Amino acid sequence: MLAGSILLGFHGCDEAVARGVASGTNELNKSQNAYDWLGHGTYFWEGNPERALRWATEESHQRSKIKKPAVLGAVIAPGRCLDLIEAEAGDLIKTAYAWYHELCLASGKPETRNTGRDFRARYLDCAVFETLHRLREKEGASPFDTVRGFFVEGSELYPGAGIRDRDHIQICVRNPAQILGFFLLRRSKPHQ
């Protein structure tokens, strides 16, 4: 990712959360689930408010936290970004996995596994990313502010397609200082 780049990220949430964060009276909570796709942090759909709203709408049926689905926009300076689209990121991830694998062997605990359709519950990936961050800390390397990755998800757009209806770029902000500001989206006007 180019130094000095700015990204627009979109976070699906309840309308009260979006308004509270945009007004500065509340803050977004960092996600620390064991299945977080890119490790722990605050998650955004890059450049895709519709996908964020779809997620919030789907989640409202599964969780009581989202009563009125909404989208919160964010201006993000990626800073020191682990961009999984760049070739050298793969080497870091492979090294982190090897370290995680050795830790599991040494402790006698089994490795976690990604589960669900499209591996929607990314227990192994989360463990590897968190291992990478701990490894960097242990080595005295600068921490990553953000992690960015492209994900293939959903149903094929046509038979044999390599493109799916939920493909997206996700940004995990580990350092909240990289979020320069929040904003609310204009309400869509009905088509006339």
- Physical arrangement of strands within the biggest beta sheet: 4-7-8-2-1-3-9
**In DSSP terms, counting alpha (H) and pi (I) runs of 4 or more, how many helices?**
4
Helix content: 25-40%
> Which runs of at least 5 residues are low in confidence (pLDDT < 50)?
none
Element-by-element helix/strand order = EHEHEEHEEHEEE
Distance between the termini: 40 Å
- What's the mean pLDDT score? 90
- Gross morphology: globular
**Structural class category:** alpha+beta
Report the biggest beta sheet as strand number plus sense, adding barrel if it closes. Answer: 7 strands, mixed
- Report the count of strand segments: 9
As a whole number of angstroms, the C-alpha radius of gyration is 18 Å
Strand content: 15-25%
